[in-house]
Amino acid sequence: MLVLLLHAVVLGLRSAWAEEACTGTCPTACACSSAERGCSVRCDRAGLLRVPAEFPCEAASIDLDRNGLRFLGERAFGTLPSLRRLSLRHNNLSFITPGAFKGLPRLAELRLAHNGDLRYLHARTFVALGRLRRLDLAACRLFSVPERLLAELPGLRELAAFDNLFRRVPGALRGLANLTHAHLERGRIEAVASSSLQGLRRLRSLSLQANRVRAVHGGAFRDCGALEHLLLNDNRLAALPADAFRGLRRLRVLNLGGNALGQVARAWFADLAELELLYLDRNSIAFVEEGAFQNLSGLLALHLNGNRLSALAWAAFQPGFFLGRLFLFRNPWRCDCHLQWLRDWMESSGHVADVPCAAPGSVAGLDLSQVAFGRSSDGLCVDPEELNLTTSSLGPSPEPAATTVSRFSSLLSKLLAPRAPGAEAANATQGPGNASLAGSLPSRALGGWARQTRLLLGSSLLLSVARHALFALQVD
Length: 476
Fold this sequence. Notes:
By secondary structure, the chain is of the alpha/beta class.
């Protein structure tokens, strides 16, 4: 019991000493506290224009976010042997002197994000940071990264460099044997070259979404055998080489949505046996090659919505059997016998829904689940359009009504035919004289002309009434 009491007293004294050591040299504009993870120094939103001259020697974390810092000189933070986390986000940093982080031998996380005036980093900016594991360079408007910049960081695991101005995958990534996560989205990258990702054998997640990628070279991911998440969505890809994803046997998520792909090739996914989520939505896909998804036996969801598909063959999935969810909305589907397998699958599995029909006209606007397919006498599928034609042929033929109307029109034509040669001569008269023709005719001729006009109007009205009556009979 005495031993436990002494132990508690020692721990209490040690905690009190640590708290005193942490707060004793705390910068004036900062707040310092000692916790389980060591001494924490918070100087965020303090209006600082330069780095404080002194920090607690025991500091494990320093937060200098949202100040007005513009420059980091050499050994800007002195010697802090316990510091593991340093955050300098949302400042106005425009230059970092090589060696600015010397004296921080245990630093594991460095955040420099949202320093839009930085734009350039010296090749030796991160010298002496051999234990750094996470580096955040997001939204710094960097145009490039020096080839040797990250060579000083052999232990780097995660790089966040999104929202920058790179036009290619930074060459500084090559050879980072311990890198596991690379975030390069929302930039200006135009291509993934065959050597862009060389040596990244432990890379598990790569995000290149929302760039300007037009080309992925063959074998670009050949060294990334550990890759599990690959995001290439919202780029400008119109085609892919057959071996674009060769060797990615551990890949579980592949996002190719929001590109300009026109078809899906069988060779693309040949090695992706572990794939669980495949996004091909928001492209211009009009054709899926037979067997394109045949090796994806573990697929949980396939997104093909927002394309130009009018047909999808079951052969695209054979010989494997796709058991996951299938998203097919916003496509101009032609709901004929070629999609009967899909309708049957919708009913049996419940893993497909919302397949609106655009054609044929007899089922346009319906969902595929509402379409009925018939069977011929020999057991073959009959398209909905053919079923409607067969049904309509069982009713009365429209030919007799059309013949009656034709005969009635012929009779009226004879009644309206001119009876005197003079009338034909008058009708044949052309030129400016026609304007005064009525005034030059005698009253007798005018009376005959009026009677003929009344006969013409009455006959036309009678013809119209007859046609409407015959049409109503035909519909009934």
